[in-house]
Design brief:
Number of domains of chain B: 1
Chains: A alpha/beta, B mainly alpha, C mainly alpha
Helix content of chain B: over 70%
Distance between the termini of chain C: 11 Å
Largest interface: B-C, 42 and 53 residues
Number of strands of chain B: 0
Strand content of chain B: under 5%
Shape of chain C: globular
Oligomer: heterotrimer
Radius of gyration of chain C: 24 Å
Radius of gyration of chain B: 23 Å
Chain lengths: 322, 301, 323
């Protein structure tokens, strides 16, 4: 089997705040194969953005990161700064969310995109113009400043920038969240095409499950800093197993089914704050099928069955409830 | 008044009192702010204790006749004497009253003008606001020291006029700040609701907008005092002010014009200068601490 | 940059200056009923002399007449004669301008560069020893009246050690060659320049530091790091250009303060520039001089603000340059 493009083992990320140590990511294992898109879903505060930043070691120096993050077999957490900088953008690049503030307002789009390839000593034949054409912006946009672009155009510019060094993996952190639905569809389609043409892998982070149904090969659901369900995209989205996943999916009203809109079968309460996590399974206070053991046992991902590609972190599955 | 009114009044005052002590408590945790507060208390006591430390007659030119001129510190004159033999410590301690008075009064003038202009400019719309803004712009652009100088020359050199002149040249910055705050507050829901209920503008300003800008005004005022004191010291140094009831700046003027600096009569100019630095630092540290307390966004500065 | 923007800004500057001129007119005339009230020697004038003086100073006739005369003379750059020296004010100013320009010019440049450097470094490494030390030092500097630095330098450096002269522009009566002359002038410039620089260094450093700290929270810095840039590159290419923006406007406003500082500094060192002239004019109630100096100072600050606005428009592409 070929080495996966990205392999994450037991990743833990904690912040140091005045109140103490705050765990944002508590032991995550992930794997992305060549040409595969892994969708990572979860609500705000579950740790998915922290995870994205941690992958390229972009968190502030006061955060503690343990575990291993392997890009094509090499662990970025053990590299020296020079090697880390070489890997950034060249092996994996990020499309950040909130295109509003992630671009330098006093430099042109063209220069910012060019900066990426220049830093890695790459001399692109088509230059910035080619990248801008690919994302549908047009070469003349290179002279524009970020404030002269619309939201959708800025997102396209970010994608062009992410491709500048021909990375193997693109980490997309909520790339379509702030956009109108129609533009969202265009961007997603564009991402699909680019991915296919270049054989890219993608880690697509979002809180919107419907988006994942279109583009993800495999899907992982995150809650309170842990992956609580992961499996093949089609199967998982058709039939969720973990109580949280079920509730999450049910929160989305279905177009055409007015009943679902009037009675959203959502969740009671709020996601736990990382400073104040429940004992045992972090979901148990809000879970409708929680049992006594849920409060005391630290739950891990276990395979559901040998035939299905599915792992769930719940005592009710994988023979853990007795 | 009705019992319910009385109850509401009591609740409001209780809340304000608790807020005040809350601020004091927070200050204790903020080291620079706390140091500032201590320094201020020290200078305040120093100024208040003036009659206990030196007799007022020591300020008169005649009092120096029998004393040695420009004498170094001794047991009798803790800070030595000036060029006509007067006790420097006496001038220092009585001067603290003048400097503090001018600084505080000037700040009061500046804050009152600035608040009124800021409130009206922020709350009113259209022409009134535009005119006020233009006036504010003018006072921001014109260099304040030359302006203060010409005003003082024209209006007179007594400490009171000095204070008014300084206040008059310092209000522009506060007006800007307050106006910005009023603009945000005006859009808030409770103001709209009050207006919908038919409340007059004046009432809205007094009851709703003013409490919102009050913390900002206080923090800003604390930061104007140091500027006022520095300006007073500069103006006094340049010749304004009263030689017979000298401020710290006036002492520095005395040192300069008597040529005591080149002969190194350090006891004459070092104490007033250090006092100025001390009190300006105190107000600045306190003001910044208050800013931090009232606007959590600024924490960590 | 569009011409319209430039024109708008220049127009604004002229308008402000016009307001200053009008303000100046009313300032000195509304207070006293006797037009010669401030003139020290007034009791010694004969009635004819009074008449001549009044006419010469443009103080006769109705307020409107006076105003017309006043505006005309301002355009002619005729500011009357100094009460003190009886020379034309314009000549007095021309004589002293170069010395002050030199002093203020060099000090401002030094203050800006050193202040910006310290502020950038302190803000970038917030909480470091450098930051804590430089911020405390900046606050003390900022709290000190600038002429007090002058006094300290005068007493302890010039007075005691005699390394530097205690004042003046150059050594009186000395006969140097050209190079010697320049060195001599520079020798006399050092302490006043040091005084002015120290006086305003603190506030510039603090302004830049605050600006830098605010910029550090921006997301585009993460993007820059993600692209593989070194820390120094992130700082110089992305952080500093953005942090400079608010500093530019604040620095322009501070130039007004440096002009004020020149007045007291020149006094301490008896440096014969416009500052000392102002101090003397205050002592002597020399109204024509004070009027002219006030207008000159205002004009200078308005000019600085204009330059700062233009520089800002160059640096920040978000400024609407097309109206």
């Amino acid at each position: 089997m070929t080495t996966p493009v990205l392999q994450v083992n037991e990743l833990q990320v904690s912040y140091h705040a005045h109140s103490g140590v705050v765990p944002a990511v508590r032991g995550v294992d992930l794997e992305i194969a060549h040409g595969e898109t892994l969708g990572l879903a979860g609500e705000s505060g579950c740790g998915k953005s922290t995870l994205a930043l941690a992958l390229l070691r972009l968190l502030p120096p006061t955060t503690k990161v343990t575990g291993s993050i392997l890009f094509a077999g090499k662990d970025i957490l053990t590299m020296r700064p020079g090697e880390v900088r070489a890997i950034r953008w060249a092996q994996a690049s990020i499309i950040f969310q909130g295109a509003q503030h992630v671009l330098n307002p006093v430099r042109t789009i063209g220069r910012q995109i060019d900066e990426a390839s220049e830093t890695h000593g790459m001399n692109r034949s088509g230059g910035v113009a080619e990248l801008l054409e690919i994302v549908g912006l047009g070469a003349r946009r290179a002279k524009d400043y970020p404030h002269e672009l619309s939201g959708g155009q800025k997102q396209r510019a970010l994608i062009a920038m992410a491709l500048a060094c021909d990375p193997m993996l693109i980490i997309a952190d909520e790339p379509t969240t702030a956009l109108d639905v129609m533009i969202q569809a265009q961007i997603l389609q564009m991402l699909e095409e680019i991915k296919r043409e270049r054989g890219l892998s993608m880690l697509f982070i979002t809180h919107d499950l419907s988006v994942l149904s279109q583009i993800a090969d495999r899907v992982a659901i995150m809650y309170a800093g842990r992956v609580i369900e992961v499996g093949a995209g089609r199967d998982l989205l058709r039939e969720f197993k973990h109580p949280y996943s079920i509730a999450l999916a049910a929160s989305f009203p279905v177009i055409g089914d007015t009943a679902s809109r009037r009675n959203p079968r959502g969740l009671v309460g709020d996601p736990p704050s990382p400073n104040d996590l429940p004992s045992g399974c972090a979901f148990h206070p809000r879970c409708s099928v929680a049992i006594e053991k849920c409060r005391s046992t630290d739950v891990v991902l276990k395979s559901v069955s040998k035939s299905m590609d599915r792992r769930v972190a719940c005592l009710h599955f994988g023979g853990q409830s007795d | 008044m009705k019992n319910s009114d009385r109850l509401i009044r009591a609740m409001i005052w209780d809340r304000r009192r608790r807020a005040f002590f809350g601020v004091l408590r927070e200050l204790r945790h903020d080291r620079p702010g706390f140091i500032g507060l201590l320094l201020l208390t020290f200078f305040g006591l120093f100024a208040l204790a003036a009659p206990l430390i030196a007799d007022r007659s020591a300020l008169l030119a005649a009092s120096g006749r029998n004393n040695p001129d420009l004498a170094a510190p001794s047991a009798k004159f803790l800070f030595g004497t000036d060029e006509i033999g007067r006790d420097v410590l006496a001038q220092l301690v009585w001067g603290s009253r003048v400097s503090l008075f001018i600084g505080l009064f000037a700040t009061l003038v500046a804050v009152v003008i600035g608040s009124v202009v800021g409130l009206v400019a922020g709350y009113a719309k259209g022409k009134v606001s535009a005119v006020l803004l233009a006036i504010d712009d003018f006072f921001l652009v014109v260099p304040f020291l030359p302006l203060a100088i010409v005003l003082a020359v024209v209006l007179g050199r007594s400490p009171l006029t000095l204070a008014i002149v300084i206040g008059f040249t310092s209000w522009a910055g506060s007006a800007r700040l307050i106006r910005a705050q009023v603009l945000t507050l005006r859009e808030r829901a409770y103001v709209e609701r009050a207006q919908a209920l038919g409340a007059g503008s004046w009432h809205v300003i007094r009851r709703h907008v003013l409490p919102g800008v009050a913390p900002l005004i206080i923090a800003n005022a604390t930061l104007i005092v140091p500027v006022a004191i520095l300006t007073e010291s500069t103006l006094s140094f340049l010749g304004f002010g009263d030689r017979l009831s000298p401020s710290w700046g006036k002492l520095l003027d005395g040192a300069q014009s008597s040529g005591s600096i080149t002969i190194n009569a350090w006891w004459y100019f070092l104490p007033p200068g250090l006092c100025i630095i001390g009190i300006v630092l105190a107000f600045t540290m306190l003001g910044r601490a208050l800013e931090r307390i009232f606007d959590p966004r600024l924490r960590g500065r | 940059m569009s011409w319209r923007y430039l024109l708008k800004k220049v127009g604004g500057a002229f308008l402000t200056m016009a307001v200053v001129v009008v303000f100046n007119f009313f300032l000195f005339r509304i207070v006293d009923r006797d037009p010669l009230a401030k003139y020290r020697g007034r009791s010694k004038l004969t009635p004819e002399q009074r008449e001549t003086m009044i006419r010469r100073m443009g103080l006769e006739g109705s307020k409107w007449d006076q105003f017309v005369v006043y505006v005309k003379s301002v355009f002619r750059l005729d500011f009357g004669r100094s009460f003190d020296s009886t020379q034309p004010v314009l000549e007095e100013i021309k004589m002293r301008l170069p010395a002050t320009l030199l002093l203020v010019g060099v000090s401002t440049l030094l203050t800006i560069f050193i202040g910006l450097y310290i502020g950038t470094k302190a803000g970038w490494r917030r909480g470091s020893r450098f930051d804590k030390a430089s911020t405390s030092a900046s606050m003390v500097l900022y709290s000190t009246p600038e002429f007090f630095f002058g006094m300290l330098l005068l007493a302890f450096v010039a007075g005691r050690t005699g390394w530097f002269p205690t004042g003046g522009l150059r050594t009186v009566g000395a006969d140097h060659d050209f190079v010697g002359n320049i060195l001599d002038r520079f020798h006399h410039l050092v302490l006043p320049m040091l005084t002015l620089t120290l006086g305003y260094l603190g506030s510039y450093a603090l302004i830049m530091r605050t600006s830098m700290i605010e910029t550090l929270g921006e997301d585009y810095l993460v993007t820059a790091r993600a692209k593989g840039l070194k820390d120094s590159e992130v700082m110089s290419r992305h952080a500093v250009p953005n942090a400079l923006l608010p500093s530019v406007s604040l620095i322009a406003i501070s130039c007004g303060y440096i002009i004020g500082g020149a007045i007291t500094t020149e006094t301490v060192f008896s440096y014969p520039g416009l500052g000392l002239a102002t101090a003397n004019a205050i002592q002597n109630n020399d109204l024509p001089m004070l009027q002219a100096l006030f207008m000159l100072a205002s004009a200078a600050v308005i000019l600085f603000n204009l330059i700062a606005d233009i520089i800002y428009a160059f640096l920040d592409p978000r400024v609407k340059r097309v109206e």
